[in-house]
Write a structure and sequence with these properties.
single chain; alpha+beta; 5 strands; Alpha-Beta Plaits; about 120 residues
Length: about 120
């Protein structure tokens, strides 16, 4: 029963983002940086999709993203869990489905994969 409900919710989110042929609407896809686009359309020989940053309670991969948005409340109202909001910059860990949901919002300008940053260790 839970799987059926999850499937229906996933389809309700994804179908408006897709055209009749199952491809993601180019207007939505263009809001995603190249690395995130590879989550949906992998291309050999180009920059790889980001590595998952963890898993949600359903076992789906989560990706660390930076969202540029005019209104973080629109993201919250869509049910997205945000980490930090500083002006128009929002950080979050989202599933592939949630990334598309965020991109569908008119207040979202862009979404990019959060880069893996390494910090030097001080052994002293």
């Amino acid at each position: 029963m839970k799987i059926a409900v999850l499937l229906i919710i996933t389809l309700a989110i994804l179908l408006p983002a897709c055209g009749n042929d199952g491809h993601i609407n180019p207007e939505i896809l263009n809001k995603l940086d190249t690395r995130l686009q590879h989550l949906y359309y992998g291309t050999e020989g180009q920059e790889a999709a980001p590595e998952p940053a963890g898993r949600d309670e359903h076992g789906e991969n989560l990706y660390s993203v930076i969202i540029r948005s005019d209104n973080a409340d629109h993201l919250r109202e869509a049910g997205l869990k945000l980490n930090a909001v500083i002006g128009p910059v929002v950080t979050a860990r989202l599933t592939r489905t949630e990334i598309l949901e965020a991109a569908r919002l008119a207040s979202t300008q862009s979404i990019e994969a959060d880069s893996d940053m390494s910090f030097p260790q001080n052994d002293r």
